[in-house]
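Posting this for the archive.
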Amino acid sequence: MKKINPWHNSWKIIDELGRGGQGTTHLVDNILTGEKAVLKILKNQKSDEARRRIYQEVVNLKIVKSAGGSVLTIIETNVEKFENKDEKLYFIMSFVNGKSLTNYIKSSNGIGLQESIKIVLNLSRTFKIAIESNIIHRDIKPDNIIIPDERTLNPIILDYGLSFNSSKSEDITQIDETIDNKFISLPERRVPGGNRRDPRSEITGLCGILYFCLVAKPPVDLVDSQGIKPHLRS
């Protein structure tokens, strides 16, 4: 007999939202209330490392949210059973209707300085809360930021799948594993032996977001092949 997925009794999948390195996300409806939410299902259910990562993601999200950070609310999860390989790990988050920062900025081909500063200052409040709770995100990029209200420009930060909490667990990341994305590439996160736990990297990521808001282009490398910094390139 086919095993029923653990969310099946309460939630109905409506649409697939995306596929990432750690899992797939779906738009779901609550069967009883009609409430919309987001379901994230772990991709590699047999991997001990992946199972620990999704557990760490939920724990870190809850900590940042409870401290007042602008992140999604965890509604339901079974990740505390990560040691039991028979359990299909998932969690359900609140659904927020809005544009990704990528779409918001590209639709305007960049925005003004004051708007850009407002977005980054609002983001920095959540990153400050997280860092004071010993949590670093490690995957800052416009795709992981939602703008629910274009009047207040108070963004919500998504995807804590690569996050690290120095007070709760050892880093799952291997010494030679690259933590990088196409938005901004930081040397300390891609070379063997680099410090992948440095909160200063989060600040550099926020500077990259400010740059993106202004020019609608990712900084990518801090210095290109000709030694030119992002803000000096043609």
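The chain is about 25% helix and 20% strand. Helices lie at 48-66, 101-108, 113-132, 200-215.
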